[in-house]
Amino acid sequence: MRTRHNVGWRVVEILVRRWKARPVPATPTYRAWGVELGAGPDRKAVDLLTPFTFMNLSGMAVMAWKEQHGLEIGDLLVVADDVYLPMGALRLRREGTSGGHRGLESIELALGSRDYSRLRIGVGAAERSEALGEHVLEEFEDEAETAVDEILELAADAVECWVREGAAAAMNRFNRRVPKEDSTP
Question: What's 58's domain CATH number?
């Protein structure tokens, strides 16, 4: 699905393709891929995970992965949509609150911590707060899809920077604001 709520999935799909990641056996709660990046002492194992749960229950998938494969919270980067950021804005943080995102709330609850990195992708706000649930489940308009694809590629670049150079470098390079007049393609 190409909905606003699924931009994180789409970034993972870009990374799977770029890195030629190999599938890891799926469970009822998640689908995953693994890849080794770099060479020699700089080699890093990276796991990519998409939840099979509803977005609001993403913590179940993260917890299942943690229990089965081990996971240091400091090594976790969650990629999610954000209706409070203008369309096309990227915001990476080392830690923080859920900002009202129920998927992030679920992960915080499951891990008992907010101390994980998150990359938020601005998908624009609903016209009315009552329409927020519908807004995030809508697909992007056809004319916006090219701009969305570009933002998701940039978000994948941010993830790669986070993996290779760390959160500070990724935040400095990729956190960006979009001028209000450019916020809705």
Answer: 3.40.50.1470
